[in-house]
Every structure is written in structure tokens, then in C-alpha cells.
Amino acid sequence: MQASIHPEPVSCGAAAAAEAATILRAILAERARAHLVVATGASQFETLKALTREPGIDWTRVVAFHLDEYVGLPDSHPASFRRYLRERFLEPLPAQPEFIPVRGDAPDLAAELARLAARISPVTIDLCLAGIGENGHLAFNDPPADFDTTAPYLVVALDDACRRQQLGEGWFARLEDVPRHAVSMSIREVLRARRVIVTAPDLRKADAIRRAVEGPVSHLCPSSALQNHPACSLHLDSASASLLRPPAA
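RE: above sequence
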């Protein structure tokens, strides 16, 4: 992973967005379509805000896949990631991409997983935007994550640390309101993307960043799997990078 450390979250997100925009413009200069995976959560606030303002991207030629969503939560709920993406990504854009949502409240989740697999499996994802959770999760793959499944999307159980993070970030009023399951893109599917850009500011992420970057690749720290990706950029702020070893002289 190529780590870049920025002073604070705004510059961190702006740098991640600038890199993402450069990649998308280059792809669209060569091909008719670009395939993008869009992440959510507090870590993506500044990245998505800056990305929607980047010039020179023909968003009508972008297919945007959704990384994860809570099971059973309607898109009208304040914590819904479909609502998040509609309000923070889709609506601010000057033109609309084709958006493939994860419908976590679908009455038949097996059919929803099949629909998502049918859409994403035939294509190559050019760029995946992602974050890293306080427990080291990647997408909603909490530890111990399944590194072996070849399913593009799967239903996962959310551990207490993950659910407490969602509570702490203000998405829910009470811990018991936080769903216990989500539909998530799998680890292998994230790694299948040609490029991955991770944005992970904030001091509360520092230990997870240290384990993801400097620890062993382990299903107990799912984001450590990114060590095996050939083209992963990691954008941190000074707080989230505070536990990393200084670079060798």
C-alpha cells in the first residue's frame, strides 16, 4: 500500500478525490465506460464532496456500484447508505452515473445477491473507493472475515465494535437500533478492482491503520488483505497515521 499522510481530513479527502478523478478521466479517455465502487461512512465525507466537484468527468459514462448496506433498513432511514449516496454523491453531481444500489431491505436477499452478482461479475472494476473501520473491517467484512469466498456480495454479521462505531458516529440513537447484519462486497471482490483508494482519517482509526499496514495479513484485521493488492493508495491524516512507524531514512 502506498500511504500518503495529510494534515487533516479535508486535505486527506481532497487528495483521494483528485487521485480518483485522474483515474476516471484516464479510463474514460480510452474506453466507453468506467466502473466505480463507491463507499460510505464518515471517512468518505470529504472524499465524495471533493469528487463531485472534480471537472472533466463524464458521469453519464460511469457505472457506480454500491459497496455495502444494512440488512432490513429502508432507504428513507437516516443511516441508510443508499440515502447517504443519494444525498452526498448522486444529487451533487452535474450528471448522473448508472447507479447499482445494494437493496438491503429486499424481501428476498438471495435474489438480491444474485442480482448484484449478475451485474458486477461480467465487468472489471476500474476503481474501488473504500475506508477502514475501527475494528479493521473492509467494507462490512468484520473480523474474522471470509478471505476465501468468491461471491461478489454476501450477507455478513456485524460485530459489537462495528455496531458501536456506527452508534458513535451518530447514525443511530441507541446500540440496539444498529442492525446486526449487512450486505457487503466481499474481500476478494474488493481486491479484484484494478485500483483501490482508501481514505481513513481520524485518531480512532489509528490502531486499525497500524494493523492493516504493518501487521500480518490476517482475517482478524480484514483490511490487511489490501497488502496483497498491486495498486492500493492509502490516504491518511496525521491523526490516523500517528501509530505508524516513521519511514526509514
